[in-house]
Design goal:
This protein has helices at 48-55, 77-81, 99-109, 114-127, 143-154, 173-188, 200-206, 224-229, 246-253, 280-289, 304-312, 317-328, and strands at 10-19, 22-32, 37-41, 63-68, 71-72, 84-87, 161-165, 192-197, 209-214, 217-222, 234-240, 261-263, 268-273, 294-300. It is an alpha/beta fold and 329 residues long. It folds into 2 domains: 4-227, Rossmann fold; 232-301, Alpha-Beta Plaits (2-Layer Sandwich), CATH 3.30.70. A 6-stranded mixed sheet has the order 6-7-8-3-9-10, with helices on both faces. Strands 2-1-4-5 form a 4-stranded antiparallel sheet. A 4-stranded antiparallel sheet has the order 12-13-11-14, covered by helices on one side. A hairpin with a 2-residue loop joins strand 9 (209-214) and strand 10. The N and C termini lie far apart (61 Å).
């Protein structure tokens, strides 16, 4: 008999959720092992946040089932809430309280004694490198500090599973990195973390396993390496001198790989190539024969961005937004 300690932390079977005629989840199956960071990767509207709200008892599914640490999310929601921590997309801290006071208040909500709440708050302030700001009001904190305080608050109850719903959306790169370091520390300490994100780099760095979610379905899952292997080879990226020849270049590259991706903002066309680097010379000759002039050419191992495009036929929303921002500069 498998012991509770070795059973998956999260088990989801056939989960659906509809809002009127909108199908937010369309039959999700998922298992998350204990003591790992599991990444849910997908664009806005993919269903990630809906899944998290169901797993954290904030919404009920239309059909299907889900358990967290063996507790049914519908039938035993009150008991489950004592075993999980949640940090949502919006930071939930009281601006008028200090960092320590915020955590102490959460401790009292968890029915800890006054002394235990203070002890737990001091420990988490130190763990998240907020000691210098412990006695300052939260409204003086930077975005990254507020997010670290929010994650710290979700740990006051010492949860078995922590849900982080897009914890770094809107943060600057330095603040995002500080949150990443905090999440890595949690993983090293044995906390199970389910992380939703739009950031491909974030999932690649933090998650030991990743599920790609699109239009309410899990369309692929595995380690970052396993997902990258699904692209089918290294990726060739050609940058054109003539913006008007992007479609011509796409047609040429389609002879050497499947589903070439066109990025008009950078004048690039990319395609996975199973033939390897040996085919590059042939591609260059074909482009030259077609009168297509290159300004740059690179050949690299696939990224999660390449995986996402190969699986969904479109770039992630963050990648698309970043590309648009570059094109406006």
């Amino acid at each position: 008999m498998v012991g509770a300690a070795s059973a998956p932390a999260i088990v989801v079977k056939g989960l659906t959720k509809t809002f009127g005629k909108v199908e937010a989840l369309r039959g999700v199956d998922l298992e998350v092992e204990r003591g790992v960071v599991f990444g849910l990767l997908g664009p806005n509207g993919a269903g990630k946040s809906t899944l998290v709200r169901i797993l954290t008892t904030l919404q009920q599914p239309t059909s299907g089932s889900a358990t967290v640490v063996g507790i049914d999310v519908v039938r035993d929601a009150a008991r489950l809430r004592r075993s999980i921590g949640v940090a949502g997309q919006q930071v939930a801290v009281d601006d008028q309280l200090t960092g320590l006071e915020n955590l102490e208040v959460v401790g009292r909500f968890h029915h800890l004694s006054k002394e235990e709440s203070k002890k737990r708050a001091r420990s988490l302030i130190e763990r998240f490198d907020l000691e210098d700001a412990a006695n300052r009001r939260a409204n003086t904190y930077s975005g990254g500090m507020r997010r670290r305080l929010d994650v710290a608050a979700s740990l006051v109850g010492d949860p078995e599973v922590l849900f982080l719903d897009e914890p770094t959306t809107g943060l600057d790169p330095r603040s995002r990195l500080s949150v990443w370091v905090a999440i890595e520390e949690l993983a090293r300490g044995g906390t199970t973390v389910l992380l939703t994100t739009q950031y491909l780099e974030e999932a690649d760095r933090l998650a030991s396993r990743i599920a790609v979610v699109d239009h309410g379905l899990v369309i692929a899952q595995g380690t970052a390496t396993e997902l990258k292997e699904r692209v089918g080879g290294s990726v060739l990226v050609v940058q054109l001198s003539d913006h008007g020849r992007l479609e011509d270049a796409r047609v040429v590259l389609s002879r050497y790989g499947t589903n070439p991706k066109v990025d008009s903002s950078t004048q690039e066309v990319s395609v996975p190539m199973s033939a390897g680097a040996g085919a590059i010379a042939e591609v260059v000759r074909a482009l030259d024969t077609g009168g297509i002039t290159l300004s740059n050419l690179t050949f690299h191992q696939p990224s999660l961005d390449d995986v996402f495009f190969a699986l969904t036929g479109h770039a992630s929303e963050v990648a698309a937004a970043e590309a648009t921002g570059k094109s406006k500069k």
